[in-house]
Amino acid sequence: MKTVSLKIQKLKRNPPLLLGGTFAIVILVGAILLTLPQASADGSSTSFVDALFTSGSATCVTGLIVKNTASSWSPLGKGIILALIQIGGLGTMTIISIISLMLNRRIGLQERLAIKEQLNSLTMSGLVRLIKYVTTLTLVMEGVGAIFLGLRFIPQYGLQKGIVFSVFHSISAFCNAGFDILGNSMEPYQTDWLINLTVMLLVIFGGLGFSVYVDIYKKRKYRSLTIHSKMVLSMTAFLLVAGTFLILLCEYHNPKTMEGLSVPNKFLAASFQSTIARTAGFNSINIRGMTDASSFIMIILMFIGGSPGSTAGGLKTTTFGVLLATTYTVVTNKEDVVWKKRVIGQEIVKKSFVMAFIAIIVVISVTSLITIFEKDAFDFLDIFYESVSAFGTVGVSRGITADLSTPSKLILTLTMFLGRVGPTTLAFGLGKGMKKKKIRYAEGSILVG
Fold this sequence. Notes:
By secondary structure, the protein is mostly helical. The protein has helices at 2-12, 15-34, 48-59, 69-72, 75-90, 92-102, 109-119, 127-157, 159-174, 193-206, 210-219, 227-251, 263-276, 292-304, 317-331, 346-374, 380-391, 406-421, 423-430; strands at residues 338-339, 342-343.
């Protein structure tokens, strides 16, 4: 008993591992609940692997599904999935802190460190205030989104069902989860500007990061924002515009997706898919019918993902921005890595390259393993797409998820977990106890390039 207590105390002193541990516990509990016969639409017990996959996808706000959410789960099952999405979107440590505040319990130092890690806060000061702000902002944004969605869903489905649909999809969109209970995502509303714009804005706002909102609220002017906020906003705008243009270009005459749409609706569909690639998981066009070029563009956007401290996953916009800035610095033979007239520290540059390298290794490993397990059952592009979608916690699929073997489902579940918590975060957590060796070796020369 004493050994277990010591291990728990050691875990509490390691924020990255504590963060990963809480997510793992929530996923496991969610999986157990989803195996209950009452959670299934037909009253039968769901296999633990499928329940684990669904719970992992919901908690990690991904959206990949092995069972159709609309038809396979009972109201209880859908409620469990929605709760997992909300917990995963806000973050496990944020939820724990909210419960502590409601019970008038003091939030300890170790919890504060874990919250700082989860929300990517630069400082320890004002964390309780930040938690309250994050919670309030989330509920307000989801509430406003539900009101706008209700303008369509309530007249179509009636008051009770319309409200349920509005709340579910608003939470799913803001948390960048991509789960839907319509049965065919947003394809029935492909040309509905109100539905599309509401979902797009919820996804974008959910993927910016809560620290950016705080900065905007305090500074009000773009030029007064921190370098972090400026990079988030700049890279988000660039990726959204570039993604929209490239998808529109590749799909404009595709009879399986956009050919029959008017020019404004083609632009809407391209914008929607570019936005969704930021780790949301909805779709308004047939993903399977997209050209290989568009699919590869989606893979790049999914891999980059959203921003730190947000509900989104992926490599993150700021990491991508630092990589671009560093590349420009090296190519132009400059000494310092600069962004918006601010020097980016070498520690941040090194961390960005490590994160990118680990992310690439994870995606390559997952793709390779699934390719081996599936034994040529699916096209390589489908598997690659699925792997990146899981790592980026996006949730869009080319239609192979439900047909994957058990080992592949378990691998994707782990991939979603790594994508949400962060493989680099866990790696740093595992290496935290290692002692730093201050040894300076003589410099060696290696030819590269």
